[in-house]
Amino acid sequence: MRFATPRVITALMLREMTTTYGRKPGGYIWSILEPVAGIALMSWIFTAAGARHPGLGTNFPIFYATGLLPLFAYLHLNSRVMLALSYSRQLLAYPRVTVTDALAARFLVGLITELLVAYIVLAGILMLMDTGTHLILHHVVLGFAMAAALAAGTGVLNCFLNHVFPVWGSVWGLFMRPMIFVSGALILLDALPQEWQRWLVWNPLVHIIAEVRKGFYHGYTPAYVSPAFVFGIALVCGVVGLLLVWRTHRDLLEN
């Protein structure tokens, strides 16, 4: 079967879309409402607190959208990949369904969803408001590619850890909660004290969000942004995670 793997992945993707979002387009509405609600809430909070301008530019919604959307994309994609084996446990009993198929299907459905959500939200803000921004598309594409790669890498490694240590999912969730405050999504890294910056620059999410914002704010060129750093972490986590999952997936599925 020359095209067995693409067919299996496609079938798994269709199953994922049906079970996650239902058979009606309305199932996708919740994926759009979450970031929209977050952007609206943060804009209202900072405006009510008397803030006249966001960290960059003059428009609050576009500032928070360029921070929250790549952050949410990473968090959601990582979670999907991390739970791939649990989600497809019964299907993995079939010889033609491999671990890689299950991981790829979950990742691709999540990626398509997050990109659509980001496009709809960002395009809506740009069309409805005078944001004063200048779109440089290749920075936006690179930023979301960094988020997707990091989510795939850490997601695969977390997939293994989640089965070896049953409490890992909860531990990882607690670890991720402060990320909205220490990733640059709400407050620019440049606005924080110098001693904080020296530590937070090691957070790959800081690089991702800054890269996306470079695509909207002309002249915003933070020197610390390193796509190679993010892709390197993604590659190491992904390779190690895949090796561990491949070596132990039968034992993991039987437990």
Description:
The chain crosses the membrane at residues 28-50, 62-83, 103-128, 140-165, 171-189, 223-246. 71% of the residues lie in helices and 0% in strands. By secondary structure, the protein is an all-alpha fold. Helix 3 (60-82) packs parallel to helix 6, helix 6 (137-164) runs parallel beside helix 11 and helix 10 packs across helix 11 (227-254).
Q: What composes the largest sheet?
A: none
Query: Termini distance?
Result: 31 Å
* Bulk shape: globular
By DSSP (H or I, 4+ residues per run), the number of helices equals 11
| Strand runs, count | 0
Let me know the average pLDDT. 87
Order of helices and strands: HHHHHHHHHHH
- Report Rg: 19 Å
Give the number of domains: 1
Strand content: under 5%
Classification by helices and strands? mainly alpha
Low-pLDDT runs of 5+ residues are none
Helicity range of the residues? over 70%
Topology:
Layout: H1 4-21, H2 29-48, H3 60-82, H4 84-87, H5 99-128, H6 137-164, H7 168-176, H8 179-182, H9 194-200, H10 204-214, H11 227-254
Key terms for this structure?
255 residues, mainly alpha, 11 helices, transport, transmembrane, membrane
